[in-house]
Each structure stands twice: as C-alpha cells, then as structure tokens.
Write a structure and sequence with these properties.
By secondary structure, this protein is an alpha/beta fold. The chain contains 8 helices and 5 strands, in the order βαβααβααβααβα. It starts with a strand and ends in an 8-residue tail after the last helix.
Amino acid sequence: MSGAFIAFEGIEGSGKSTQIARLRDRLQAAGREVVCVREPGGTRLGDRVRSILLDRDQVGMSPVAEMLLFAASRAQIVREVLRPALERGAVVLCDRFLHSSLSYQGHARGLGRDRVLRVNLEATEGLLPDRVVLLDLDPDASLARALERGAPDRFEQEAMDFHHDVRAGFLAEAELDPDRFAVLDGGADADAVTTSIHAALTDLLPELS
C-alpha cells in the first residue's frame, strides 16, 4: 500500500474531530488526497450499526454483542473504503479504529485484550494503522466537553469509572506498541496539539515538516 493510515484515539471529548479536520486541511493544501472516516460508520452498513451502538435506549447490550457490532462495522469499512483508499495512495484519517475496541470492550468491559484482538484482526484482515495519535485527557474534563455538544449517547452516559478504565486501556495499548503510538496531551491548547501532531507524523507525511 502506498498511502498512509492514521488513527485518532481517545475518550469522548478528547478533541479528535477538531484535530482530524485541521490535519485534513493541511494535507489537502499540500496536494494530498485525504479520506476522513469515523467509527463506527463510514458505510451504509456502518452507519446503521452506529445508530444502534450509540442509542442511549439500548440498555443491557452484552459486551460480546457490542464487540461484534463494532467488528462488523469495521470489516465493512476496511473492505469498502480503507483498503481502496490506501491502495490509490490516499491518506486515511480515521476517528477511532481497532484500539478503541481493545480499550472499550477488551479493557473497560472486561472481555480481555486477546479475545477482542482476535475478532478484530479477522474483521480488518490484519490491517493496522501506520500511526495512532492518542489524545490523552482526564475523563472529568473530556466528558464535560462531550456533554456540551448535547444529550449524552450510550457511552457518554456510562459511569465515570468506565471512562477511567477506557483511558487506562488506551495508555496500556500505547505502552505495548510505543513505535506505533504518539501519546499527546489532549488538554493542551488546540494549536499546540496541532503542532505536536504534525511533529509526530512527519516521518510518514513529509508534507507536514
């Protein structure tokens, strides 16, 4: 593959959407094709799965069902969007990918990393991001940001202990794969975060230097 695959990770309200939009604009101005997607979603099937997963009335969803729904959406977007984009040389910016499932379902829901990884590697046919930008932020601050956007979704309305567990899951993943991860302070000024992201990606995207 000749493109570059960058996944943005972090708990709700960590600033992923803002930074993805800024990076997209910078790369497009440099002449690169950029494909921005979010998970779950990004395809007709994925968008329908997203509506189920985020529906605050879907109480009692089992962790296994949750994991499999995310994997189904991921399998579709890899086949339909991500691989074709990478093969034609595009830069793919993905708002969440595999490491969200490892952190949310594997760590916070208690399904275990190995189980979630096995299911998702099957779903993605082994596709992994070239770089994971983790915007780390204290859950109290991040949830306050997220709730400013409107009524909480099914994940945003979880207890704070859940969000702390998700954050711990992300940081554990970063420790396991430090060459793939760039862990940045999501609580910093947005312009400073943008600068740090560019610095973390220049080896993959020289346009950012």
